[in-house]
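Our consortium's second objective concerns turning raw sequence data into structural hypotheses that experimental partners can test. To show how far this objective has progressed, the report includes one record in full. It was chosen at random from the queue rather than selected for favorable results. The single chain below, 313 residues long, was entered without modification.
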Amino acid sequence: MSFSPITHIRHFDLAVPDFDRQVEFYKNHWGLTVQHDDGDVVYFAAEGSPEQYVTRVRRSQDKRLDLVAFGAADRSSVDQLAQELGSKGIQLVSEPDQLQTLGGGYGFRFFDLEGRTIEVSAEVETRQHRKIEERESIPVRLSHVVLNSAQPEKMLAWYERHLGFRLSDTLNHPHVGDLFYFLRCNSQHHSMAIARGPHASLQHASFELRGLDEYMRGSGRMIRAGYRKIWGPGRHAAGDNTFTYFVDPNGNTMEMTTELEMIDEDTWHPTIYDAQEPETSDQWGTGGDMDEFITKEMFNDSDNAHLFVAPPV
């Protein structure tokens, strides 16, 4: 595209049937802070992040990924993106306007290639945040979101063309093809990724912790609390980040991570990693190989019934 409007990821929003347990999971175990609670929607902030919230949980009979939100540099970037998307026939959910969600701001929503709701905004009020201290094993910020897709190649091309994302690395299996596309919108190795799956769904969401010790302490806390760990602790090759994956009360996969690679835009060259090599999934060899069980867990429940349907909030 002619310009790259996206500066960073803001938040991802979930609708869940087991609302109370999801809220309890984030609040009392995962280490997020309730920023606002209206009874049916709870906004959660990360203590180290200036974002008003990094995830939002909505009470619903149906489970779904409500939306993924990204930041833009300013109001003019929001307007320009909306104009470009509209001119290319992409369906807008709303025109650029003042947002009515926590923190306000100026933005709009639209459907991506497969019908997920995406929000882009600027001028959102920042929250008072703080430095996360040594041994404080709570998320600093939202790191990235991974989306499952049955047509990942088309999704990659769509996000590159329309939102200006850049491909950092690819995870490939010689007999299956490309499994993962890691996409960046800033110097962080990836703020989102697209994974090959049987349907559209949230593959996982990842939260950055302060450092290795905090990451291990956080992982241990979740294990002791009895939440199901499906993979980790380990360290990926692409992105060079650590990983421990847990299943939340509604069957979504949540990751604790740290030390995600920062890249130099002028010198970076994408690598194709072989998924059959053990070091690709886990450099340390501590988390175990990526197997069919883990893959199926991360397929999650299909969002197909909710595609091209905007959330009510």
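The partners drew two points from this record. The chain has six helices and 17 strands. The radius of gyration is 18 Å. Both points have been shared with the crystallography group to help prioritize constructs.
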